[in-house]
Structures
1.
Amino acid sequence: MFVLANTLNAIVVVLASLFNIYFWIVIISAVLTWVRPDPYNPIIRTLRALTEPVFYRVRKWLPFTYMNGLDFSPVVVLLAIELVNRIVIVSLSQYADTLQRTLISQ
């Protein structure tokens, strides 16, 4: 059971790191839309490839996120990332801690 608890802790750390990295990628992508960077720059193309499919799905499911030339889909994505962090990641972490405490007390 220690293996399960340690595996869950490792999954929590990796998922939290990935969500944190993607959070910053979304912020950088949103800020870059204000300055109109060169679309042929490989960094810009990578950022667009990482964020545009998610933004497209948000715009498709919630059409009110794009109004009058303003795109609020990055805000929705950031809120979703934070919601997943607060619910799923924290719950997995607490479950792993409970498993470890239960195993230690036995």
Note: The chain is about 80% helix and 5% strand.
2.
Amino acid sequence: MTRPVSLSISDLNGDRHECVAEAFDTQHNVVILLYPVNALSATRIVLT
């Protein structure tokens, strides 16, 4: 497990969102948890 790291991500409209990322290591996988600090303003989220 890693400590939480702050980062900023831009959406398709160019708006920047402050997020927190953490990584968890299992025996077979690495899981990365990424979540916004504030609620997102849009109702639709597109991951590419």
Note: The radius of gyration is 13 Å.
3.
Amino acid sequence: MKIHEYQAKELLSRYDVPVPRGSVAKTAREAGETADQISQRVVIKAQVHSGGRGKVGGIRIAETPAEAEQIARELLGTKLVTHQTGPEGLTINAVLVEEAVQAEKELYLGMLINTSAYAPMVIASEAGGMEIEEITTRNPAKILRQHFELVAGLLPYKARTLAYGVNLPTENIRPVTQVMAGMYRLFTEKDCSLVEINPLVTTTDGRLLALDAKINFDDNALSHHQDIVQLHDSSQEDPLEVEAGNTGVNYVKIGGNVGCLVNGAGLAMATMDMIKMVGGEPANFLDVGGGASEEQVAQALKILLADPNVKAAWINVFGGILRCDVVARAVVRVLEESKASVPFIVRMNGTNLQEAMRVLEESELNITFEADLVSAAEKAVAMAKLRLSKANDTSQ
């Protein structure tokens, strides 16, 4: 789960990480009032779940409260399009108004799980201000890493090693290690998957501040952190993904034209890979899981069909706990109710396969059966391309 920058800074400040003075504003008037209280130049920062905001006008300087109000008015309610949001962009419902500071040195600090080493890790770099991907590409030697254990914690000598490694003056070593200690406590106590400060700056007036921050949380641990759940902003997510989460299935919209419904994440990945291998583009990742009910499968199918890009649907199910006949009845029910014209390719095996085949055959719906994995993928891709071609011809 992602949260906004202003929420991340509020959390960091609770863990003794210094942040600039400022406040979130959801109206232009609030932005002007906050700027007036700060009584100096301010930065107006669009609050969306995306990086790269400054490159597309999402971060702007205001010299006066009136200018802050005007900038907020221009931003609020509009969509910000970055390289991370895709062409549809994300709606700006709030802005962060905070003091503009003069940075003397910019650092990068991040904590995440290193899945290769099966351990949490701290990353530090003196090339702050750039996205970590840019640092990796341009200055890989500038990235320093230290692993730590959840039981022993981030040992002080490791924090000092990183602080010295980013070429900080002696007087900043202790404050930076204290920032790392606060990040560590937040990371472990709130079950974060990422805590990132970029940049962490030393200012010309001698302060150390988290100028920008990003925090993500492990979805599987949210049941233990209702205070974090309250920070969730569904307006920053695809409506279909939100609906899928409420239904209890895993859905991610990808953008292709072959819709997939699968049980099991591994099979879902293999299904998408196969679509790519035969020259198609998957429209989504949709895993209904092993124990889905008929109602959940039906809702998942409705979500799949709600994507206008889907020109063909491939049901690829290995029946175990989730029986094939449950999926078949859900497919028939949704197609009969929706009158969808999207062709369906069904590949099933496992528990109650014969019953499932009987249900689908007796429905006399637009369903193609294919037992072979490669052939099923080829048919799904061919049908999607054919319907897309016909749609393009009609529009011309």
Note: Residues 103-229 form a domain with the D-amino Acid Aminotransferase; Chain A, domain 1 fold (CATH 3.30.470.20).
